Amino acid sequence: MMSFISYFINGLSLGSVYAIIALGYTMVYGIAKMLNFAHGDVIMIGGYVVFTVVSTMGLGPVAGILLAVILCTVLGVVIEGVAYRPLRMASPLAVLITAIGVSYLLQNIALLVFGSNPKSFTSVVTIPALKLAEGKLTISGETIVTIISCVVIMIGLTTFIKKTRAGQAMLAVSEDKGAAQLMGINVDGTIALTFAIGSALAAIAGALLCSAYPTLTPYTGSMPGIKAFVAAVFGGIGSIPGALIGGLLLGVIENLSKAYISSQLSDAIVFAVLIVVLLVKPTGILGKKINEKV
Amino acid sequence: MKKSMKKLLSLGLAIAMAASLTACGSGKASEGTTAAGTDTKGEAQTTDAGGASGEGTFKIGGIGPISGSTAIYGQAVKNGAELAVEEINANGGINGTKIEFNFQDDENDTEKSVNAYNTLKDWGMQMLVGTVTSAPCIAVGAESTNDNMFQLTPSGSAVDCTKFENQFRVCFSDPNQGAASAQYIGENKLATKVAVIYDSSDVYSSGIHDKFISEAANQGIEITADEAFTADNNTNFSVQLQKAQDSGAELVFLPIYYSQAALILAQAKQMGYEPAFFGCDGLDGILTVENFDTALAENLMLLTPFAADAQDELTQKFVASFKEKYGETPNQFAADAYDAVYAVKAAAEKAGITADMDASAICDKLKTAMTEISINGLTGENMKWNADGEPDKAPKAIKIVNGAYTAM
Amino acid sequence: MEKSTAKKFHIDKTLRSNLITYSIVLAAFIIVQILISAGQISSLMKGLLVPLCIYSIMAISLNLTVGILGELSLGHAGFMCVGAFASSIFSISMMESIPNTGIRFFLAILVGAASAAAAGVVVGIPVLRLRGDYLAIVTLAFGEIIKNVVNVIYLGKDSAGFHFSMKNSMALNMAKDGTVILNGAQGITGTPKNSTFVIGVILTLITLLIVLNLINSRSGRAIMSVRDNRIAAESIGINITKYKLMAFTISASLAGVAGVLYSHNLSSLTATQKNFGYNQSIMILVFVVLGGIGNMRGSMIAAVLLTLLPELLRGLNAYRMLIYAIILIVMMIFNWSPKLIDFRKRYFHKNMAKKERV
User: Fold this and answer.
1) Is the pTM for the entire model greater than 0.90?
2) What phi and psi values does residue A181 have, to the nearest 5 degrees?
3) Beta bridge partners of B195
4) Which residues 10-69 of chain A have a CB within 8 Å of chain C?
5) How far, in Å, CA of A240 to CA of A19, rounded?
6) How many CB pairs under 8 A join A and C?
7) A215 to B263: CB separation less than 8 angstroms, yes or no
8) ipTM rounded to 2 decimals
């Protein structure tokens, strides 16, 4: 029983990282209607920035995260402006492929700048581990911080979208770009803002991901990126609470299937569950129903 | 029709662009051969033959991943081999003939590896030091046998890497390591309850794992947990460690590479699990991971042919010049590559080959010469090879004490 | 008199376009053969000939799903994986029973195509109920599942027949004379090298023939009507599921054929992220999108160019993949940006207008 709880909590921790990454995916998808495959690599860049600031320059973790957030935000906006904006009106597939190009680009830049050797990441979390049930159950500080920050970010985002003008503009753009433009909303600006927020989240996710699983290579972001994408679809892509639920579920399912079914097939099981969910609810758990127009 | 015209036009433009880029590319490569290889980052592909380039050089090729997720191993081999080539050239080459070395990227992909091999053939390669990883090595082996090209892999450890008679290797084979590890644990009574965590998607790791499991039974070792992970899921080890802990294992066997092992050690610490850890040569290099807390690796045991902290003169000299040139501590891959180049030199001198011979004639001579030589390398003293291509050397058991390797 | 000859030689537009496509392949084949016999071709190019055919077939077959059926598939490499492994197992286990290489390889191609088609049906039935990005993610999921499962299968053969396990090679419990054919993640070694450029070109032509004929057939038009307007197609009595599944299965089996060529071109076969994972699926998709969605000739040319590109960039060493990424982004923007398309139209307008007048 103790080990079950432990598997479950570790799953939640993994799931919260997925959820934060998935939030970035889902926001960009909801508003720009594109799958930003480079999102995972922005996470990796965020991780490297934190690493450089904390371990090489010797500054504190807070400074590292702040700088990572700033740089990733700039990076996100630049990527959007240079690579995606010219293709705004083109086929979504064209943007998808460009995003893949950007993903390769970021990986190879990191490979050239930081080299192929893995870096051991110093955790940005300083909270000690929580020991429960006479030391039989340990919950690491990273787990606690990841879960809390995930919830905080989600609440913050929801409030931002509901209460602010910019948030309302985002909603409007996601509903109907043309109509939003007619209402005087700056569509390009709103999309750039979305990318800025998504990339800032990616930086935070990068710091948390690398703290929980302390290694850093140019390919650190790609697999969590794909998993988070799955999580976003799982919960209903475009939906913010959906990303949270999808991420947490994915993390827990992955850990439990590793523990009780097969550690080799855990990815296959996660994907199989996704398929089943989508067959029952074709737009994900919290996804909007698509109305068919003739 | 209009539409397809447009497409064709843009594709044509792309061709032109690619062609112009290639032109730049080849220009750069030739620059690399003539300019003295002063850069340390390894941009220049062809290590300079010290002014003697052009006529009368041995052309040795190398293949391995220098981009992609396994780039660490290819990069290490490339650096180690280049260092050896430079030393040999500075000391007069092979029987007075200088060596030219050309290393090609294969991204750890079988198909790309064959492409790299063909690129090297076009360049005029006479001997191959490669490939670095096992699956590409097997694929390239089929080609090199056809061409009768001498092939010495520094680190291709799968059994089939030396399937053909033109193939030799410097490292141990996987089953060899699996059996040796089980025997070592059994004979030294390190533990009776052992958990294994291995990478089931990796040829090296699953090769050692399979042999270890079957040999463990003979050694009276009980495998309490046999847990796998895959290349797509190699950062979160909480479940595998938890299972090992719950099963009461006194020792965790890690037949994996050091990048994942570093993570496993850190996560075991996080959850407060402190068994003994035991690994193979893949763990070598763990102390050099940038920013790694070496206290985590305290008391880690590994069987490895090479230790960067060894006190013998050869190792110390190698480590010093490697650090000077590349700014990092060499790992076992670099050492294997260094030995591989020296083995080629020894065999070439024994066989008395000359630079004007073609690859096939060289191969015929080297095949016999390899079984006759004996070299004192970084990864073993008096290394000898048998006709199957296997090296004869003994692994050393090493324990990490106070953040440094110590012989056990 | 003049009029009737004109009519006689009148070939309709699609046929002419298709003939151009076939002749491009044939011309490329002939040029390469001439170069080979003249000894003017490098080993690298020689080694790349079969992969070029493989990726052309992959691009054409994926274009059937993406361009003609109109569904985004991110798991196409999974079908290639099925074809590769099934045919490799067949070839190795039939090595003694069928000594004739030609017949064995022909059968291996059929085995690869059939098994990939079977996988296509199994995947297609659930997948095709979904739409858009949800369909895409499910195909990605299936591709990953296929790759993951292949990595845990152990298959051996001894005098008593085949042994199968999903644990490890020891669990196969084989007799002494047994050999392990598929050794989990260590894959298959020793597949006979039967793929040649001639066979590759023949298979590429057959693929083109199947796909182009399908497009211009009754079924093809039905498939495209489903793509363009599902509800309208349904209302005129087109069986949507049947046509969707048909296109998807054909596409899968052609990918299986490419897989056969792949596995019989290399002596070691492992399922990794690089060759059968989503990375490969996406690479194939890049060929399709860059070459033109629904444009078979374009995707073939894009496949050839983008497979050659990283090899031609070898001189750049460490910067190779960086430059490749930049070229990919620039080409995508150049090819797809609405503004640039307008610009090009204006710029080339004069030429086009002249031609049309003539």
Assistant:
1) no
2) -65, -40
3) B225, B252
4) 29, 35, 37
5) 9
6) 121
7) yes
8) 0.87
